[in-house]
Amino acid sequence: MTSRFAQWTIDVLDSRKMAAFWSQALGYEIEHDGSSPHLWPPSDAPSGSLTVWLQETGEPKNGKNRNHPDLHVPDGQVDEEVERLIGLGARRVDVGQRGDEGFVVLADPEGNEFCLLYRRHPQGA
C-alpha cells in the first residue's frame, strides 16, 4: 500500500477572499465548515481530484513557496486562462524563469505561486 495525494492545504490571511478566488479559478464548490473554507471538486471532475482547504493564519506569506500546484487547462487555451485568472486577482511572477519553460508562473491574490502547464504528462489525471 502507498499513500496518495488527497488535499492541497494553503495558509491564507483572508479565507473568504481566497475561497472566492480559488473556487472560481478551479470551478470548485465552497463549503464553510467553521473558521476555514473547504473547496470540493465539481461533480464532473476526474476521480481522485484534490480538495483544497484554506487554513487561516495570522502571518503573511514570506518568500518563495517551497512547493506549489501545477495546473493544466483541459482545452489547452493556456494564454486565455492566464488572462482569466489575472482578471480574478492573480498576477504574473518571476521566480527565475528563463522564458522557454513549458509553463506560466502566477501568484494568487496573497502571493502564493502556482503554474499553468502548457502540456500535461500523458498519465496525468
TrEMBL record:
Composition bias, Basic and acidic residues:
58-73
* Residue span of region Disordered: 56-77
Lineage at the top is: Bacteria, Bacillati, Actinomycetota, Actinomycetes, Streptosporangiales
UniProt organism field: Herbidospora solisilvae
> What is the protein name stated in its UniProt record?
VOC family protein
Give every VOC domain span.
4-119
Residue ranges the record marks as coiled coil: none
Q: State the source organism's domain of life.
A: Bacteria
One Pfam family, short name please?
Answer: Glyoxalase_6
